[in-house]
Amino acid sequence: MITKEEHLRVAFEMAEKTLKGIPKSTPSDKVLGEHGLRQVGFERGWGNTAGRILETVHLALDLMQAPDEVTLSSFLARLPMVFNVVIMSPHGFFGQSNVLGMPDTGGQVVYILDQVRALEREMVRRISDAGLDMDPKVLVVTRLIPEARGTTCDQRVEDIRGTKHSKILRVPFRTGKGILRQWVSRFKVWPYLEQYALDCANEIRGELGCKPDFIIGNYSDGNLVASLLSTRLNVTQCNIAHALEKTKYPHADIYWQRMDDNYHFSCQFTADLIAMNTADFIITSTYQEIAGTDTTVGQYESHTHFTMPGLYRVVKGIDIFDPKFNIVSPGVDTDTYFPPSETHRRLTAMHKDFDELLFGKEENDDCTQGYISDPSKPVIFTMARLDKVKNLTGLAEWYGSNERLRSMCNLVIIGGHVNPNLSKDGEERSQGQLMHSLMHKHKMAGSFRWIVAQTNPIRNGELYRYIADRHGVFVQPALYEAFGLTVIEAMSCGLPVFVTNRGGPAEIVVDGTSGFQIDPYHGEAAANIIADFFERCRADDNAEWDRVSRGALDRVAKNYTWTIYADRLLSLQNIYSFWRHTTHMERRDTRRYLEMFYMLKMRPLVKTVPEAEEERESGMTSPIDNRPKSGSTAHWQEKRQRSFSDLRGQHPDALPAPPQDGRPESPKFGLLHL
What we know:
Elements: H1 5-20, H2 28-33, H3 50-65, H4 69-78, E1 84-88, H5 107-129, E2 137-143, E3 157-159, E4 166-171, E5 174-175, E6 178-180, H6 193-208, E7 214-218, H7 219-233, E8 236-240, H8 245-248, H9 256-263, H10 265-278, E9 281-284, H11 288-291, E10 306-308, E11 312-314, E12 325-327, H12 351-359, E13 368-369, E14 379-383, H13 392-401, H14 403-408, E15 410-414, H15 426-441, E16 448-451, H16 457-469, E17 473-476, H17 485-492, E18 497-500, H18 505-508, E19 516-518, H19 523-539, H20 543-559, H21 562-582, H22 584-606, E20 616-617, H23 633-650
Helix pairs in contact: 1-3, 3-4, 4-21, 5-21, 6-7, 6-23, 7-10, 10-22, 13-15, 13-19
């Protein structure tokens, strides 16, 4: 075993001399055995061929002789450091079909599923390049919801399509009354998360057989749970905010007391502060998320200092110049979202259904409202959740008030429940009622179609191209959008886009080249920008449409791919894991302060959030079938008992066995580690 620096240098020099004398394509096993590298201290993991091992050895020698950040990053990126990844996403309905458009379920689900596929591919490549014969594992950990509304969210484990080694692991919310059976809003999950983190710690170890190498949190709830888990398990943590609510709801800090009954921002903002300071690193999709623009405040910048009257004052919530911040933009699934010109890949059999969906004369109270009398006009199209921030009702107001737009185009909105009474989300019901009133106010019958949320991404990809065939456009009118996956989806399908200038889409779209930026707070001006575009298209026989469409396709192809994303994310994990190891002492004071803040502020605030008033299951069995079949709550409980038994025998720091009365064990620590 090599224990001294000089011995390490000698070993590298001997390896370099040996490797230079053998063909670069020589397999690593032969290099280690027949050529004697194992005798000087080398094992598998330096590379799969002699040439790759030599490149890695050269990087190591360069670091010892003249260390610099570029060489260190390149060297760490080659080391096999990640084999098991956990991705946290507790809220909403997380599944692979029939979930988009459900409450609190949208772009984050699409983002994570595409992220998982890209990460698995990159992990397999890196492990192979390192000369190892191992299978990586990726777990997406989300909430098990017994009343799953026809989705798979009541199944404990689900394989992720398009992968070989990735799964969805679902763990239910538990309280002293049993398992929470129904969906609960993302604004009201706070009473369940600490116990949820305890349960997840055991389920993850039971599923992987070890602790993970890397934990990725998503949104406020997932980031808090990731913080609790990473502190307990001593694992590198990455945060992805997707959207920090503080910037989506202006003045929510000053007027938090007015909004707390509905949104519980006192808990959410506190959780965000804890999570962003606990994380080893944070990735954002755009620069604006971190530091904003000349005229707007960034999501993280808004947490630098603020006041919540009667609660606390933040004087340094986060340092936006901290090197933990990194920009890693996601991509799109190119098997689903591709240009209309690739006719051999088109799903034209769907077009008859689209004709009826968009231009059918009949209305269905639960699926469609409004109708289009002149299908020859181009379509202004949007698709998003039906909530206040997504601003679909704002787009309807702009269109209804602009005679130029109404004379040239039709408006098609896909989002939410067309019948507000079917929604269990209060904000969606309110926006749905507003949409109905706008339809009557502006008398939009004949040029407006409102369609219930569409949840099939493959079908949606062809729908984008169907609208592009008719020289339509895509509008993203959100009051604030952290990134905007639907924007790059539409651009990948060749649609000209009009996007909010509040948030990430303003960085995706080069104004006037790959689309247009609009201000959602100035609806009349936004509507005129769209109308001006269609007038130019009329004047030059759609040459303007073709120009912007080409610009959109080029922009996405050069900047937004999942291959770039996965390589960058795993390289960052290696760097920050190294940093975490080398600066452990420097972070201890910060972690102790965060633990104190969690105990003295977060826990009391959580107690102010009422538990959901709905039926709970006290017997831990499924109402449909009392047999402990895979996917049922009883099966989860049985599996959990086995996990506890296994963990007590395998891990010295494992949790105690769950009490027999079904009550959750009382945590005896701050961030799950005091």
